[in-house]
Amino acid sequence: MLLPAVHSVARWVLAGVVLAALLLGGSGASLAQAPIEAAPAAPAAPVIGLGQPLPAEEIARYAITVFPDGRNLPPGRGSVEQGARLYAMHCAACHGAKGIEGPAARLAGTDGFIAWSDPLRPLRVRKYPLQVLSVGAMWPHATTVFDYVRRGMPLHAPKSLTDDEVYAITAHLLHLNGLVPASAVMDPQSLPRVVMPGRGRTVSAWPMDR
Question: If you average pLDDT over residues 26-35, what whole number do you get?
């Protein structure tokens, strides 16, 4: 009487095993056949949409930096004599007739608080501390004088001077410091050759060879 019952249980067990095998096999097949999804693409860089390309002639209007070795000096020339007249018109009111009186920064003479050639200097330096630093003593390159005058002077009308006028004023300032004779003429060739006393006290951030 027990044998038919055992057979019945065995059939149910066998049927369960077969069903499980079918289910597992079908699941594996479906997994094997499922397509592999690609990794999401990186988002595109945002486009701001501001500004526009500038033509070379427009860039040239602003690329006016003059390097210590004279690169980018514009064409032109100016003499010490011409510079003296221009200095009286545009510069003397702030820097003094001889470049030492102020109240703006001192342009001629030595650096420091005391100068034997200027016994009243301590009084002026006390009132105007900028006068401790002079162009002749502290500025390392004559070309930088040209660059600064062309960019920022005169104070009330920067960039109003022509290149010839800037060369002339630069020549006059160099003469005030005893660095060039009264007959000197500054141009793109002669200006970089002027050796400034301040060069030996500084370290240049500009590459001299390109």
Answer: 50
Sign of CA dihedral 42, 44, 45, 46: negative
pTM beyond 0.85: no
pLDDT band at 115 (very low <50, low <70, confident <90, very high): low
Closest CA to 96 of 139, 130, 63, 69: 130
